[in-house]
From TrEMBL:
Protein name per Swiss-Prot or TrEMBL: Pur operon repressor
Quaternary context: Homodimer.
Location of the Bacterial purine repressor N-terminal domain: 5-74
Similarity comment text for this entry: Belongs to the purine/pyrimidine phosphoribosyltransferase family. PurR subfamily.
Alphabetically ordered keywords of this record: DNA-binding, Transcription, Transcription regulation
Organism this protein belongs to: Paenibacillus residui
Signal peptide range in chain numbering: none
A Pfam family of this chain: PuR_N
InterPro entries linked to this entry: PRTase-like, PRTase_dom, Pur/Pyrimidine_PRTase, PuR_N, PurR_Bsub, WH-like_DNA-bd_sf, WH_DNA-bd_sf
């Protein structure tokens, strides 16, 4: 890269960091990239760190020593997160979202990258201190949310299928009991998709009783993997007993099917 003026270098360094969250970047990488002295790079990083933390973009951690460098940790301030979720709750309360069987139509929200990116950053903030190897979800509606979360954690995504796919090779399949309708269902995961003893973050768009999430937990046991956290965008309040108790939710939803009304409030992440 050609030598840049300091103002241009600051812009380019900022973009470089934003696209590489949770990655250790040695000072020599920047020094060689911009043909600048390490002392100048350190001064630039101090400016970026100050702005990131003042504006709530995240933290810029510095590691000293020969193998040191900087790591950008995206963060979403709780106040800004709460404001976003309250707006989302307003969208969720639209009566036309109620489907037969008290299901909720959310595909339009899950299909908006701008919203999913913000939600993904909130989840990445909530689980930033966990030791995680992969983000897992079950097809299909949870996929955009899982990818958004994984982007800000800089992790791969593993997708559990409802049916095994011939293109994925040998798979591990289990039967599980759906918490909402008590039906026996099947989920599968390709053997190559997940290394044994992986540390997994489960992300899902909606949880009623938690049968699907519990099914993923049972499936992970077949890989000797451990669950480091569970995040759900929306949880139903109309449940007497849950199969999963340790989770982070961003919104809670209650449905009155007779009155065709919905009530949505911020989830336990804000308690």
């Amino acid at each position: 890269m050609k030598k840049l003026k300091r103002s241009a270098r600051l812009v380019e360094m900022t973009q470089y960091l934003l696209y590489r969250p949770h990655s250790l970047i040695p000072l020599t990488t920047f020094a060689e990239r911009y043909q600048a002295a390490k002392s100048s790079i350190s001064e630039d990083l101090a400016i970026i760190k100050e702005v990131f933390e003042a504006e709530g973009f995240g933290e810029l951690q510095t590691l000293a020593g020969a193998a040191g460098g900087v790591i950008f940790i995206p963060k979403y301030p709780k106040t800004a997160s709460l404001e976003l979720i309250r707006k989302l709750c307003g969208m969720l309360e639209q009566p036309e979202r109620i489907l037969p069987g008290e299901y909720l139509y959310m595909s339009d929200l899950l299909g908006k990258p701008a919203i999913m990116n913000e939600i993904g950053k909130i989840f990445a903030t909530a689980f930033a201190d966990r030791d995680i190897d992969v983000v897992m979800t079950v097809e299909t509606k949870g996929i955009p949310l899982a990818y958004a979360t994984a982007t800000f954690l800089n992790l791969p995504v593993v997708i559990v299928r409802r049916d095994s796919q011939v293109t994925e090779g040998s798979t591990v399949s289990i039967n599980y009991v759906s918490g909402s309708n008590r039906r026996i269902q099947t989920m599968s995961l390709a053997r190559r998709a997940l290394k044994e003893q992986s540390k997994v973050l489960i992300i899902d768009d909606f949880m009623r009783a938690g049968g699907t999430i519990q099914g993923m937990m049972d499936l992970l046991q077949e890989f000797k993997a451990t669950v480091q956290g569970v995040g759900v965008l929306v949880e139903s309040e109309d449940v007497r007993e849950r199969l999963v108790t340790d989770y982070v939710s961003l919104a809670r939803l209650s449905v009155d099917s007779k009155a065709r009304s919905l009530t949505a409030v911020p989830g336990n992440y804000f308690d």
